[in-house]
């Protein structure tokens, strides 16, 4: 549906709304009542078409879906990385600090392969250290959500 057709539909909907609002004024006029009913039928036929076409035009492109999935994975990975880094700092584990030293910005800028590799490593480390990470506020549900984001990516 183009802009001109959409404008006509909106005009018909506005006209129908006015006619329905003042239906008591022309209730005795059979011709006007019939015309209002025909307009209502026409709007009812066209409105779903407009809605369907608008939805079809608004379907996300594959690139947009991938970008959104990458952003979600980067956010989840950054949250887990922050908790792992805090734990590593508290326990003076330099190896873990190095593995978990990623910001969300770095993760969103990483290539797809690097992000996937880093996220898998972070998930593996976080799963192994879940009891200790619970002090940092990490829950099993967060790791499940992280795994789901990793799988979706």
Q: Kindly give the count of domains.
A: 2
- For the CA atoms, what is the radius of gyration? 28 Å
Helix and strand pattern: HHHHHHHH
Number of helices: 8
Question: What sort of overall outline do the alpha carbons produce when their principal axes are compared?
Answer: rod-shaped
Mean pLDDT: 82
Instruction: Please outline the major beta sheet.
Output: none
Q: Which class best fits the helix and strand makeup?
A: mainly alpha
- Oligomeric state, counting identical vs distinct chains: single chain
- The count of β-strands is 0
SS strand fraction: under 5%
Distance between the termini: 34 Å
pLDDT below 50 for ≥5 consecutive residues: which ranges? none
Q: What percentage of residues falls in helices of 4 or more residues?
A: over 70%
